[in-house]
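Mods, move this if it's the wrong board.
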Amino acid sequence: MKPTLFVLAAGLGSRYGGLKQMDGVGPSGETIMEYSVYDAIQTGFGKVVFVIRHSFDEPFREFVNARFAKYVPVDIIYQEITDLPDGYKPNPEREKPWGTNHAVLMAKDIIREPFCVINADDFYGRKSFEVMSKFLSSVYGKTNQYSMVGFRIQNTLSESGSVARGVSQTDENGYLTEVVERTHIERLDGGIKYKDANGEWHLIEDNTPVSMNIWGFTPDYFQHSETYFKKFFDEHGQELKSEFFIPLMINYLIQNKISTVKVLDTDSQWFGVTYKEDKPSVIAKINQLVENNVYPDNLWK
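Not the wrong board. Structure tokens:
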């Protein structure tokens, strides 16, 4: 049995101004998520599951079927505001679902094997999938042994300005002890620094691992998430913008010594498209990888 790739594609990309998950950046119009699917197939993943919104179901299915559905089994599931445990109701004024870990919960009835969670609009690189596939293959039949690909922060900075990253703390054995969201990180005065809530700058070592939302789980993670989501909803369910993020769940499991999270090192260069202005740079980086024969000029030829 092979691990599954679980792609979070329910976000509509409001800042970007369109459905960026389906915006082409490769020589033959490939999207960023197609490179992730391609890398996953190459590194031993056996199935791909997408979580999307019902509102763009038809064009998304047409896209998947036209591109890569014949190369790997694909399932499509949905995330909506109303996807809540029995007896729970959302604030009628809320407009968006409940974040990344809520999206993960949508797959609890269809994923039975170790799986990797990624964002649709982040480019992670082949090595990230290699280390994740190897880890997931080692935890079949086990529980509470999870992982995170830890990108070196120097490989995740934006050319356009500051970024927000989940700065990770690890113990001497490489296990995650905490993920702290830093919302303003940039290269400044020759070093990488983050600005705290008081406006003070703090230096971060170049190789500090950060979370780019590529996680490895075994199916027992769904039960933990289902249980903790009820607690989260009891406390924050009527708020209009509260979100049940994966790092929130991870920190809870670590701090309560329920699960361990191994940080997997990669020297891959992350990049992504947040705004339309980012697209030319991403296209140039993809083209360079094609020229270096990392990828063919047509992924599905």
